[in-house]
Amino acid sequence: MKRFSIKLFILCVVLSCIAPQPVLANAGPTFWQGYPSSEVLVIDEDCPVEVAGETLLFDLSADSTRSYTIQGQVTASYEMVNPTDRDLIVQMAFPFVSSLMDFSAGDVAITTDAAALPYNLYIGDVVNNPRDPGQQETEASLIFADIVSTVTDQAYQARHFSEHEQGKLYTLEVRPTTEQRINLVVDFELEHEKTKVLVDGFNSYEGDNEKVRIASWCYEPRVLQVLVLGDDIDLNITAYTDGQLKQKTDLYDCHISAEETDVKSYIIGYVKGNKQTSPEQSGTPGMQTSVISEQQLYNMYAAALDRVLTANRGFCTSDDLIAENYCKRVMTLVYTVDFPHHSTKNMSVSYKTNGTMDKRKTPTPVYTFNYLLNPAQSWSRFQNLSMEIITPDEASYIVYSNIELAKEKDMHYRTSLHALPDDDFVFSIYAHEKISAWDKVYGALQNTFGYFTYLVISTVVIMVSLIVSVVLLIKHKQKKMK
Questions:
Q1: 286 compared with 388, residue with greater pLDDT
Q2: What is the predicted pLDDT for the residue at 149?
Q3: How many Å from the N-terminal Cα to the C-terminal Cα in the chain?
Q4: DSSP E strand boundaries for 61-165
């Protein structure tokens, strides 16, 4: 019996040592927010067009993971009928959540009777700002009334400036005259009630009451700008060779010019000339300003400028504006479809969608997808909804769905409904057919101990093995003593 106990202990230790070891890589998140996809809606609530049938396809197999979550293509194909004696021009909208940097016109396909439809992109409210850690992520509102309110080309009404307000734009052309880099410093007084300032190219800012100091390291010739709205300011320029501003230098040239410009012209010109927002300026992927109207661009950046001027007492940097490109926000594609009287049209909308990744309670992620069906209630009539889901290799099983689905074959699920369900569609996919009790235990340990999970489990196995061995050994000795 003693030999058996020792062998059992050794076996458990060996198994814990030869078990698969986790790869220690850079830590990734355990939760990554995805956003819902949505039905197409009609802008005019009194539109008589009916939806005779819809086929909804979630193809999650094509793209694998992207940005810590799974991305797939959602395609909604509709059979739409104009039952009236009138020819109709119907304005439709497709809302979704994305950042402008993530948005790509190539990801979207809108067709009617197989012909591509042009569309306009309308920029809505922010739901997540990655540069503002104090901001609480808000729920994306894809409710009919909220969406329609954003479909407008009216100019944003700012608190601190107007769209065509004239300002003075100072351009500083700076050039070090030796190979020594310089730290160019600009000091000025800013009475925020009378003056607002937007600067570009500066990487340092200090403010003390009404005194402001901005600076920029110049290793080579650079162009810096200061846009002044309201009362003018005096720019006092000095240069240093150090970051502590102790070693002054005059080994540089700085040519200053000034011109009048209005707020909208400056913002649009800056955005279209910036490498981060305009791919044609850099030859690399970036925000596709060509698919967004100038009014929509102005409204977005003007709202950001207005907000920052309030928070920073009249001061804003161009980085504060460019940060808007990375914010997740509700956006809406708007297009029109012609319906002759008593006609039927076949229309489809296809767009990429991202699931919510949640690894807080399981050893591998659960990916959840939300599809908002409530916008379809805006149609005069809606019937016959068919849905198909193709799952990816890494999460091939649907472990939750609020609508009953039938598994046709591996990684293929279907359902058919005669009418819209009462709730929006939610489903979750996972690497295994079920989330087992062991998955939940391991997930809880992993969420608590992270990379040390394996060590904790191994230690528990060894301790249990040791305790079992000791108990068996004691019982064996007690038996021999009798």
A1: 388
A2: 77
A3: 16
A4: 65-66, 69-82, 88-98, 109-112, 115-116, 120-128
